């Protein structure tokens, strides 16, 4: 029994080991956390083994370590940077689709990665119009993200594109601006971007044979690299471009220094400074860069200008062997021209003539291709400009419509607010005016009671009770003289109001003196000391307006004009003005309130 248990235990262990060792090759799908199929693992090998990278992308989709958009971006990267020839138009379509998706729209890092590849693809396709478009969009996007150094790198690329499209001075000006912005900064990222911009400007200057301007730029590269060699810690900015160890730092310095030596070697040779050219040639030849294909292409013009044909012929043979059948390019044209010069120097005029004809024919073909490509570029640029103008026009229309809607909405809201405010104000005024009209009507209905002993028993006017005359003749001069100024005014006011003497056109001081047989002093004292009125005119105006209120209340058939004339006003306008100044409402509103 014990042996059976042991055997079963061993069998179980073997089964577990078999399951653990099984993988995709044994028919089992990888698990979701399998690091073999992650984005990082794919990026580690896509340049050296693109086919394996594509297989890993498919596997990552199956096991769930990658989603569809990530897989598309990784495939595009493999297609862009692998040595194999892939259909770049298809890659471009993939990337443009990604750019419009939520994958790029909602994640800035993804959007920048897609733009990087679009720039690279358009450069490889030789489509300068698309190249300029995507580089410009990338630079703008980097500015928006605050990545100024990356934006300047891309603006340097834009400068180079402009020169290749025929806008040389505009492109050089763009490069100058980038170099000026980066040159004084002692950070690795900025130094590296500045060196790239300096190189781009040098290439442009070499293309247009302005070699005298190349020399200070190349020397500036050497100065920057030497400063970095001596003070590496000052440049340690922690950026991802910073060399990770001492060997890589030395490789970086040697690479750019040797390139600068190559530029100086060519520039001095072209300018006829052969000793300087030989000096930098010796420095360049000692560098590892001179052994690369690009380095050998730089050596060829230097050997040619210095007449070192013994070195030049094997170099041309080696370069041609690397080119193979790809000879329809400007580099091969330069080789043909160099071989013609060498043959002529050796006295082999037949070979020189043959190379010269081949060179001229190739240049003619290349020029024709260049003109055709430029014509295509101009047409594409014109079409792109048209499309851009249409888009901008539509944007302006939409923006104008949006602004108009916003403006109308704001105007409507303001108007509604004002209307509401006016309604509330009008309602408040109406309430106030209604109260005023009611108060005024009550006063008018009651009238102004005469100051008699019955209503002034307290004797507020001097304490002497007034007699009860039926008319003015009931008073004797001695009685009147016995009245105080206040009592005299009350007596005068009652009579004037009762007999409506204030309606007489001649009503005034003289009228009162004659009507009541009073002296000027008595009348003046009664109004100045015994009345609340500043003058007889104010008293007259008060009584006329009180009488107008009475007429407005009791005589609805009388018009405002008739009431104004009856109360002694020359025009309805003057009547309205006086009435409103006194009671804060118009006569018509008052009538409406008391009779309504």
Quick summary of this structure?
With 596 residues, this protein is mainly α. It has helices at 2-21, 39-45, 50-63, 68-81, 88-100, 102-105, 108-125, 128-145, 148-164, 168-182, 188-207, 214-230, 246-271, 274-285, 293-306, 309-323, 330-345, 349-446, 477-482, 485-498, 509-516, 520-528, 536-554, 560-566, 572-583, 587-595. It contains 26 helices and no strands.
Layout of strands and helices, then pairs:
Layout: H1 2-21, H2 39-45, H3 50-63, H4 68-81, H5 88-100, H6 102-105, H7 108-125, H8 128-145, H9 148-164, H10 168-182, H11 188-207, H12 214-230, H13 246-271, H14 274-285, H15 293-306, H16 309-323, H17 330-345, H18 349-446, H19 477-482, H20 485-498, H21 509-516, H22 520-528, H23 536-554, H24 560-566, H25 572-583, H26 587-595
Helix pairs in contact: 2-3, 3-4, 4-5, 4-7, 5-7, 7-8, 8-9, 9-10, 9-11, 10-11, 11-12, 11-13, 12-13, 13-14, 13-15, 14-15, 15-16, 15-17, 16-17, 17-18, 18-23, 18-26, 20-22, 23-26, 24-25
Characteristics of this structure?
596 residues, single chain, 0% strand, 26 helices, mainly alpha, rod-shaped, Arc Repressor Mutant, subunit A
Describe this entry's structure for a reader:
The protein has 596 residues and is an all-alpha fold. Among the domains are: 1-25; 472-595, Orthogonal Bundle (Arc Repressor Mutant, subunit A). Helix content is 74%, strand content 0%. The chain is built from 26 helices and no strands. Helix 11 packs parallel to helix 13 (246-271). It is rod-shaped. The termini are far apart. Mean pLDDT is 80; it is low at 16-34 and 446-473.
């Amino acid at each position: 029994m014990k042996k059976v248990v042991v055997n079963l235990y061993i069998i179980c262990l073997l089964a577990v080991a078999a399951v653990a060792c099984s993988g995709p090759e044994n028919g089992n799908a990888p698990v979701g956390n399998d690091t073999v199929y992650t984005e990082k693992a794919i990026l580690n090998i896509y340049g050296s083994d693109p086919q394996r990278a594509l297989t890993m992308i498919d596997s990552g989709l199956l096991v769930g370590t990658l989603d569809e958009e990530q897989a598309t971006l990784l495939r595009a990267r493999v297609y862009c940077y692998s040595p194999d020839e892939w259909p770049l138009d298809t890659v471009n379509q993939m990337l443009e689709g990604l750019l419009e998706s939520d994958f790029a729209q909602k994640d800035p890092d993804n959007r920048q990665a897609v733009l990087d590849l679009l720039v690279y693809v358009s450069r490889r396709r030789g489509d300068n119009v698309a190249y300029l478009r995507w580089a410009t969009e990338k630079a703008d996007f980097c500015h928006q993200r605050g990545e100024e150094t990356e934006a300047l790198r891309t603006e340097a690329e834009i400068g180079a594109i402009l020169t290749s499209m025929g806008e040389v001075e505009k492109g050089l000006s763009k490069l100058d601006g980038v170099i000026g912005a980066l040159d004084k900064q002692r950070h690795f990222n900025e130094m590296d971007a500045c060196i790239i911009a300096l190189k781009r400007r040098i290439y442009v200057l070499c293309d247009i044979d302005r070699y005298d301007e190349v020399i200070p730029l190349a020397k500036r590269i050497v100065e920057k690299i030497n400063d970095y060699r001596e003070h590496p810690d000052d440049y340690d900015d922690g950026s991802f471009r910073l060399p990770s160890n001492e060997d890589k730092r030395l490789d970086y310095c040697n690479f750019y220094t040797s390139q600068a030596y190559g530029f100086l070697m060519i520039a001095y040779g072209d300018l006829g400074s052969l000793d300087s050219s030989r000096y930098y040639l010796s420095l360049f030849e000692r560098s590892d860069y001179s052994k690369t294909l690009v380095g050998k292409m730089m050596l060829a013009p230097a050997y040619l200008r210095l007449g070192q044909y013994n070195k030049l012929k094997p170099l041309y043979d080696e370069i041609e062997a690397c080119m193979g059948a790809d000879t329809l390019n400007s580099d091969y044209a330069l080789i043909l021209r160099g071989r013609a010069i060498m043959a002529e120097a050796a006295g082999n005029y037949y070979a020189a003539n043959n190379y010269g004809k081949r060179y001229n024919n190739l240049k003619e073909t290349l020029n024709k291709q260049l003109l055709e490509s430029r014509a295509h570029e101009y047409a594409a640029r014109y079409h792109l400009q048209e499309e851009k103008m249409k888009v901008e026009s539509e944007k302006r229309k939409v923006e104008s419509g949006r602004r108009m809607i916003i403006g109308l909405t704001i105007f409507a809201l303001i108007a509604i607010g004002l209307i509401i405010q006016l309604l509330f104000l009008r309602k408040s005024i109406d309430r106030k005016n209604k109260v005023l009209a009611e108060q005024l009507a009550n006063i008018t209905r009651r009238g102004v009671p005469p100051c008699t002993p019955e209503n002034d028993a307290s004797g507020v006017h001097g304490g002497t009770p007034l007699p009860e005359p039926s008319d003015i003749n009931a008073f004797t001069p001695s009685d009147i003289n016995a009245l105080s100024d206040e009592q005299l005014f009350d007596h005068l006011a009652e009579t004037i109001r009762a007999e409506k003497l204030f309606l007489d056109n001649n009503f005034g001081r003289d009228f009162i003196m004659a009507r009541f047989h009073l002296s000027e002093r008595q009348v003046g004292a009664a109004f100045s000391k015994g009345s609340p009125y500043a003058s007889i005119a104010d008293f007259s105006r008060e009584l006329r307006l009180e009488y107008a209120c009475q007429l407005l209340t009791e005589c609805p058939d009388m018009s405002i004009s008739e009431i104004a004339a009856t109360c002694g006003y020359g025009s309805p306008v003057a009547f309205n003005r006086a009435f409103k100044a006194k009671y804060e409402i118009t006569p018509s509103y008052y009538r409406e309130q008391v009779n309504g």
